[in-house]
Amino acid sequence: MLDNHTIIYSDGSKALNRATGFGFVIYRGNKRIAQGCGRLSIIEVFDGEAEGARAGLQRALPTSQGQPIHICINNTSVIQGIRSNIPDSSQAAFLEIQAVARIYTIQTHWSPGHQRIKGNEEADSLAKEGITLLVPRGLLPTLSGIKRLTQERKQHQHRKW
């Protein structure tokens, strides 16, 4: 990548207790310029990955100086949602990224997980850190989170029966 391009690595992570977080790290050339992480409400890892990409993009835009931005993600479904077909879950994140991509040069790239890619490993660690944070007030569950919760409750009721 060129030294004036902004590169965002983002990731999502989910703990055994269902806590889900996201993380991102931003580079310009080889220099790390920002990072962040957060905790989310009732959601799936997919949603965390989308929210991580959105949060990273929000953080990168003010310093991008109009230069190309590359979002590196290890989830191909999230990449498809950014590029074209917005899924039912996390629509706000995908719509925001697509709106920005109509104004700025945004490219998405697949970054395979757990392959010792520095930025991807850092985003993964930050996503795990995000799991430990408190859920911000007012966050709503995503559609996939509601579906999972409904399925779990149905299974629980079935076992009780």
TrEMBL record:
InterPro entries on file: RNaseH-like_sf, RNaseH_domain, RNaseH_sf
Domain RNase H type-1: 2-132
Listed Pfam families: RNase_H
Example GO molecular function: nucleic acid binding
CDD domains: Rnase_HI_RT_non_LTR
Name of this chain's protein: RNase H type-1 domain-containing protein
Originating species: Colletotrichum kahawae (Coffee berry disease fungus)
